[in-house]
Every structure is written in C-alpha cells, then in structure tokens.
Amino acid sequence: MTSTPAGGPGPGPEVPVEELSYTDASRELDGIVEFFERSEVDVDQLVARLERATAIVDELDRRIRRTRAQVEELVPKLEAVGRAEGEGEPRGTAGPGPDGGDGSETLPL
Q: How far from chain centre, in Å, is Cα 36?
C-alpha cells in the first residue's frame, strides 16, 4: 500500500507515518512542501497536509534521535574493543596452542 501524493486529488488512504520507510517519509514530506509552495493552495487540504507534515517531521526526528542514541552507545564499545585488540598480542600467537605447541601456527585466510 502506498500513500497518496501530498498534492493528490483527495485525502485517500495513507500509510501510517510509523510504517513509512525513512526515504518514503522524506519523499512524502517533499511533496507536501511542494503542495504548500504552489500558488493555488486547496484550503480543504491545507490542514490535513499540515497535520501529516507535522506527524512525518516528528516521526523522522524520533528515528534520528533513537539512532543517535544507539550510535553514542555503540561507539565507546567499539573503541574499547579496538583498544583491547591493539594492546593484546596478535591472534594466533598468544601462548601455547591446544596441541601444546608454541601457538605460532599460521592460519589460512
């Protein structure tokens, strides 16, 4: 199911904002902006389009904030892993291997 274009003939069925992909939501928002930029604005659609645009902006903002929080949580973890690997010995050379050898066996890539 696709949403009705922002300047389409009538309100029609619209995909709930939460179900739109980021790209689709952004495209629909662009269409709504184009609707407002036209010289002849359909007053009957004005409020509905403004409410839809507001809902899309709120949803996209929520997604961006959630993603930013996830990145801020993951970056320190990735940096810690990178530091730990940089401080330790290279893999495959740390102590005796399971066969009692010196652990210097070369593994195929």
A: 27
Q: Tell me which of 3-12, 29-38, 65-74 is least confident.
A: 3-12
Long-range contacts of 2-10 (CB under 8 A, 24+ apart): 3/28, 5/31, 6/31, 6/32, 6/33, 6/34, 6/35, 6/49, 6/52, 7/31, 7/32, 7/34, 7/35, 7/38, 7/45
Which conformational region is residue 92 in: left (phi greater than 0), alpha (psi within -120 to 50 degrees), or beta?
left
Question: Residue 61 phi/psi, 5° resolution?
Answer: -60, -40
Kindly give the interhelix angle for 22-37 and 43-87, rounded to the nearest 10 degrees: 140
> What is the distance between the alpha carbons of residues 104 and 96, in angstroms, rounded to a whole number?
8
pTM of the entire predicted model: 0.58
**Collapsing DSSP states into helix, strand and coil, what is residue 65?**
helix
